[in-house]
Amino acid sequence: MAIQKVKQSVFSIGVKHWDRRLFDELIPLPDGTTYNSYLVEGSDKTALIDTVDPENLNTLFDNLTNHGVSKIDYIIANHAEQDHSGGIPAILAKYPESKVVTNEKCKNMLIDLLKIPDNKFIVIKDEETLLLGDKTLQFFLTPWVHWPETMVTYLQEERILFSCDFLGSHYVSSELFVKDEAKVYASAKRYYAEIMMPFRRNIIKHLEKLKDIGIDMIAPSHGQIYDNPKFILDAYKDWTSENVKNEVVIPYVSMHGSTQRMVEYLTDALIKRDIVVKPFNLTVTDIGELAIELVDAATIVIASPTVLAGPHPSVAYAAFLANMLKPKAKYATIIGSYGWGGKMIERIVGMLGNLKVELLSTVLVKGFPEENDFHALNDLADEILERHKSLNL
Ligand code: FEO
Predict the structure, then answer these.
(1) Domains held by the chain: number
(2) What's the confidence (pLDDT) of residue 74?
(3) Pick from 189, 223, 240: which residue ends a domain?
(4) CB-based burial label for 254 (10 Å; 0-12, 13-18, 19+)
(5) How far apart are CA 119 and CA 121, in angstroms?
């Protein structure tokens, strides 16, 4: 894998994983991903910023060899998750003089996860600096993006922020810097939705903390480098704001057509009211696409048939996921059908405790929907319209 020059004495030396299609055995990766590792060569010391997924360690070693790196003084660990930290033990073995530079919490996690000996660490505090000779690294603790120990590293002289997971994207390209902003926007939004959205309030705080340091480039550990940092910072400001859009997301499953008919009817009723609707048939949905739409939607309508007295398991999965991701939606409700009884609606409501939403009217139909059920769906569409109008959407 090619080594790419970021700036004078700063190199991208990590791995492009073109054909990876699943992350954490959970997150679809339609565009592959990268594990970016950066080499910063100061006049006195050399630092390696994050490593790579252990599966791809040979590529990192080849890059270090091809670049003629004979000594690494510091391994900066911005995050303990193994796709960035997993290579640290092998780097320490090959470069035994090197020390792992990180915060106290990350150190403890690296000891737990990777069994790195205590004496291999240099522990830094928030805003502390580390001199490499003519270059200075400064560390900013940014907990909960997306683990409790996460931090970012700022190269003062070059004004580069090495943000690790924060502000990244699961996107792979031969080009080092973002060129196709529309494509990267979609990929970064998917990444935000799936990984960062539950930590929206932490992100707002961190962006505030970093706003005056002066950033010319953001070099994350997944995806391309932003040489126009405003592009991603503005996107994050929008996604993390309280603003919602005049949109309804409808994750649904239908077994014999009743719930499908309800979703179709409600979708049309919302379109007639000039509301943007995003129905997702969960049997064919990439959950990343659903997550993206949860970023901005004002309302979530979950639609399910009744299976053994509860929701369809695929709907339960989507509800569980939406609850975990904590989108900023203001309203939610449940519609669906049943044959002979059950507690489908109550069970889904019970799964949404993390959502700070007002629950709107539910619509539950016995068998196939008929006239009065369509009236109820019209009433629900009116209710959604009225609520959206109250938000000036
Ligand atoms: Fe890319 Fe949280 O690891």
Answers:
(1) 2
(2) 98
(3) 240
(4) buried
(5) 6
